[in-house]
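Milestone 3.1: sequence recovery, worked example.
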């Protein structure tokens, strides 16, 4: 059986190593490779004509995938983006495993009732839908008003940096969040903080947990959380669990601890 991940760029993707390690662990006769796609409109056509059984879809094609699927399953309907295609009776079923993968990654964080989500991009949408599904209050803080309507429709509070600056100087800011999440790309290829330090510092100082979607490096956000001794996780488990959930859909096999660890090793070795 053939599986692949679509994206552009795709060279950096660690998904093949993670999934192939999983296939090897359970002796599943399959191969997972990567496909560089130039035009998102050709996604489904490529998937069908190359007889691919299942695929992951990454930046910038998750919304194309959503629009081309024959059937959208679960929370993906609210997110408007999918990262997993499954061929089923010549139809393409589509799922979003980023959202439940994120929830699995923060399982060890207990009693989360309110969350400050930094960023308002595609990942923030999946995280916000997943958290709202668990009745958790969400405040978005983004540098611009991009995607504001999506989040206000989801009943999240939404502030850009100017709004927050005004609130902060007027003393009207809520400082106590159970969890602060960095879902921006600040810190990925630079040393930027995901929000101005004047209010990021007091917010981090008062939170119980911090989570960074970025993995493989300690970002300025992560360093700040560490400097206040906040319980902090990076995005490795989020990447792992979206993969594990996709793997279960690909194979129909429920992942046990051994399989999860085999996939984690594949990820780390890559
Ligand atoms: P998007 O491009 O959709 O969104 C990027 C977000 O980051 C926007 O809100 C943008 O603000 C904000 N942003 C970008 N640069 C800065 C900056 N210098 N300062 C403050 N805010 C900034 O990206 P994604 O949502 O797809 O990905 C976001 C991050 O999540 C990436 O770092 C990615 O690596 C990581 N990720 C991790 C995954 C995992 O499994 N661990 C899975 C998917 C993503 P604006 O709207 O104003 O442009």
């Amino acid at each position: 059986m053939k599986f692949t991940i679509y994206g552009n760029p795709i060279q950096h993707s660690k998904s093949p190593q993670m999934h192939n390690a999983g296939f090897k662990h359970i002796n599943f006769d399959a191969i997972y490779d990567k496909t560089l796609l130039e035009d998102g409109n050709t996604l489904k056509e490529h998937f069908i004509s190359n007889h691919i059984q299942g695929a992951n879809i990454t930046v910038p094609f998750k919304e194309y995938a959503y629009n081309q699927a024959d059937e959208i399953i679960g929370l993906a309907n609210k997110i408007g983006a999918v990262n997993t295609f499954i061929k089923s009776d010549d139809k393409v079923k589509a799922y979003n495993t980023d959202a439940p993968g994120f929830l699995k990654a923060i399982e060890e964080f207990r009693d989360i009732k309110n969350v400050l989500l930094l960023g308002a991009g595609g990942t923030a949408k999946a995280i916000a839908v997943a958290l709202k599904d668990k009745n958790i209050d969400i405040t978005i803080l983004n540098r611009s008003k991009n995607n504001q309507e999506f989040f206000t429709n989801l009943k999240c509070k939404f502030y850009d940096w100017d709004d927050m600056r005004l609130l902060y100087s007027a003393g009207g800011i809520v400082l106590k969040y159970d969890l602060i999440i960095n879902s921006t790309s600040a810190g990925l290829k630079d040393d930027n903080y995901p929000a101005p330090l004047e209010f990021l510092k007091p917010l981090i100082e008062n939170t119980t947990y911090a989570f960074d979607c970025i993995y493989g490096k300690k970002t300025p956000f992560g360093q700040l959380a560490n400097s206040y001794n906040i319980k902090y996780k990076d995005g490795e488990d989020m990447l792992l669990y979206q993969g594990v959930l996709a793997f279960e859909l690909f194979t129909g096999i429920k992942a046990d601890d051994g399989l999860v660890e085999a996939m984690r090793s594949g990820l780390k070795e890559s």
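The longest strand covers residues 2-7. Residues 59, 98, 119-124, 142-144, 146, 183-186, 188, 192, 194, 213-215, 235, 238-239, 242 surround NDP (CB under 6 Å).
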